[in-house]
Specification:
6 strands; 147 residues; three-stranded antiparallel β-sheet; Dna Ligase, domain 1; three-stranded mixed β-sheet; Arc Repressor Mutant, subunit A
């Protein structure tokens, strides 16, 4: 990783920690390491994968601590939790609203604008009184490569 990329990642972590403090959160060692793991991953990671990264720097941090911190970061809207089909939920830094398309064959995840689900959301609201949150779930299918 280049020095400028490392600086950008650290700036992002600092910005997230500042936002967290503004919302009443604390910048603990576990949170700093967890945010570092989220920033470095640039993708969707399970709590177990994130815990392994955190524990590589601080072996005394338990999986339960990682889960508690993920819950708190989600509550503060710093992290998004998404279910991408089968398996555990994944986490990533909160960004613009988007949905997910997941290939059932190769596992490729494609992020799409949440507006792609506008018709689904409108139908669910009108017919069933249900509000769809498209960035919290995935549409499973096959990517172009897997046909």
């Amino acid at each position: 990783m280049t020095q400028s990329a490392q600086n950008a990642d650290q700036d992002l972590i600092d910005d997230v920690l500042a936002r967290l403090r503004e919302q009443g959160g604390r910048a603990t060692t576990a949170r700093r390491l967890l945010l570092g793991a989220l920033v470095e991953s640039h993708g969707h990671r399970t709590a177990e994968e994130l815990a392994a990264d955190v524990r590589s720097h601080a072996p005394d941090i338990n999986l339960s601590t990682v889960y508690r911190n993920l819950d708190e970061l989600e509550r503060l809207k710093v992290v998004d939790r998404t279910h991408l089909g089968q398996g555990p939920a994944t986490y990533h830094l909160a960004s613009g609203a988007h949905g997910h398309l997941v290939c059932e064959r190769c596992g490729k995840i494609t992020e799409v604008p949440d507006t792609m689900f506008d018709d689904l959301a409108a139908t669910a609201r009108q017919r069933y009184g249900f509000t769809v949150d498209p960035h919290r779930f995935a549409v499973i299918g096959r990517c172009a490569d897997c046909g």
